[in-house]
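Predict the 3D structure for this chain.
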Amino acid sequence: MEDFVNGQYGYRELVADCDRLMRAYPFVRGYVIGHSVLGRPIVALKCGEGTRRIHMNGSFHANEWITTPLLMRFVEEWAEACARDGVLFGEQACQLYRETELWIVPMVNPDGVQLALEGIESDNPYRQQLLAWNKGSGQFDQWKANIRGVDLNDQFPAHWEEERLRRGKEGPGPRDFPGPFPLSEPEAQALTRLTQTLQFDSVLALHTQGEEIYWNYREYEPEQAEDLADRLGRVSGYKPVKLSGSDAGYKDWFIQRFRRPGFTVEAGFGVNPLPPGEFNSIYSKMGPLLTEFLRLHR
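Done. Predicted structure below.
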């Protein structure tokens, strides 16, 4: 996390941290699982060699970019603890490594994150559309969508049509437009391919904010899902919530498609984008939660 400076953490910082992490800990492997609309590689990190295969992701939403350094801090602390045969939030790190294969996609939406942090780049081919979608404003810190104005967490084929009608958005914008059809965006396609290929036992999508854990989807979730969410809540102080009136999200699709535990965790509390000065406070609760997620299926 050496590159988390100047109060922001964008795609450049992510790539630099991934390179540094893999050099320091060769047992952490990096993969490109797809590319964003603007051609940025979407990176996945793999750590662990166990039979439990699980997944975490962050920065579905551009202005929730703080979820990326939260995940990067976690995987770095786990790798460091493994290297010295140490402890990760009370758990033997090497034991977790032997039991679990974790795949992290720390930044699902790299184009959107860069837009939210730095505004429109001079060579952005969507420059005029973005200004129009943002009502003429060059301030994009509240932007949630990808660079084509599509909300990536409303893109998945889990009652997508109902979500589209509920959102009531007819076209691209800063938030809540589910796209012209499910999986229209390359970022959502990449995560879907990864999930279908690796058949995860459980997934966790990290968002902000609210300090809540969503664990259900239309009664498709497995019987133990609520108990597992309670475990995550006990170690973090976050509140497990049975959610209704929401469709087409990544964890919704995962639960419906695989009938396995899926979670959306809303990190921190306040107004997005959360202040970088709260990072350490947020991580003090997220670290134990993510560690518990590694050991959920023992």
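The chain has one domain: 11-112+184-294.
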